[in-house]
Amino acid sequence: MKTRIITAIVGIIVLIGVMFTFNTLIFNLVIAAITLIAIHEIYNALSFTKKDWLMYAALVPYTLLVMTSNYMVMRRLVMPVSFVLVTFYAIYLVVRNGTISYQKASGLLVFSGIVIFCFYSFIRLKELLPVEQFGYDAVFFILLILCFAWGGDTCAYFAGRAFGKHKLCPVVSPKKTVEGAIGGVLGTMVFGVVATLIYSVAADRMEAFTRSNIGVSMYVIIALLGFGMIRLPLQNHILEQEKAEGLLDNPVELSSSDYLEQQLAMVSLGGLRSLVAAVLSMEAFDCFLISDWANLERRYNQVTSLAPHSDFYWDNGSWHLGNNASSSYLDNKRLSPMERREGFRKYIQKGRRFLEKGINANPDSWYLQSLLGNMYSDTYRQPDFEKAAEAYRKARDLGAPPLTARKEFYALVRVPSKSREALELGRELFKDPRNRTPSLVSNIFVLENRLNIPEKERIPFRELFPTDEIARDLMTSHLANSLKYPVDGLREALESLPPAKDE
What we know:
Blueprint: H1 2-20, H2 25-45, H3 53-67, H4 72-97, H5 102-128, H6 131-134, H7 136-163, E1 167-169, E2 173-177, H8 178-202, H9 206-211, H10 213-244, H11 256-269, H12 273-289, H13 293-306, H14 311-331, H15 337-361, H16 366-376, H17 385-397, H18 403-413, H19 419-430, H20 438-450, H21 461-464, H22 468-480, H23 490-496
């Protein structure tokens, strides 16, 4: 508490001093210094060390260039210098690390750019609001923007201390609470209105303020933004309650780096995300044509970071990794048998993990859950039928087509410990004549034998197999799939049937 108060007092003193230099170059230089301090904090947050001082040093002249770009000569230099700066960062990261860290590179450029141009906006505002024309109104307007930030932080702190119970984002900031966030937004709105009213009275502008549609509109916009900020923590709180009550499944968690990558990409490209994602997906297809699986995986990670809610990209990426890449390794005669098997297994797992990331980003997608079930039930790619059945069940709960229930049944049949559950599902499916496929009928018969179901509790034999001919055909076909499905009691039942008429 004491630290906050001291910081606020020092900040106010500095601010007053800066405001006295409002109409001079000193104001611009102070803003530039604050900008560089902020960028230094970004470097620390992205885990850059003292060894990376060249990257920070490169931003010093660039920041000064941006700050002085009100002059035409300097303004014309901004774009070419920006290009040179980005190129320098790319070369530096490759030389230092041997590769480009997508997270660090995008974080560095995006947030450094945001900081630079946010602070630069103060200088532009100063130019648009010359003191000669607007007097103290110009100073007040800029001061109000700064006070919004300080006031919001202060109100959030005290609201959190007084009422905070529900964590807002414990991974990023363990002490932040939903109540504190709401208090910060509401406190900022109240502070802005009160400060403007006081200034209006002091400047003898009350009448103009109350009659101005611009003034009213401004605070309507602030209110809307405030409610928009409140919505997210409240929505997250509701989702957590639903999960606690068993109404929603807990999704597979993204790693911190994956989550950061997604957020940075979305922030940096804005409305162009879909277009860039489409271009990158075409590049990924080119990688598929030449069997460049490492770059294909990298491209699809970028694509899904830009368009995380597109089932299409998650489907394609998981298929290429789990099927095409794994088969490519298995068929690659240039590799040793051990390398082929290792690559085969590795990319099967990559495909599954990729699809699980897609499910995390789209927890309401029955389609992705169904795809995951297909991947786990692939008999040629390290099947896990229990996980396949679980994925199909989740897909059904999310509204998947009726066929998904049969897929779940076929997966459960192949898990010995799930025989009882499989039989119950099979009997339920059997009630609908459309589900009475040869495999389903035969498996129900086998499960009843496996579980030693009493004769009177079984589905009647003639209901399963209307004629001896049908029974013979289905049982023979099922026995041919003995490596795929269990066949308990099936051979004995087949032998007990009367011989076919043509025999």
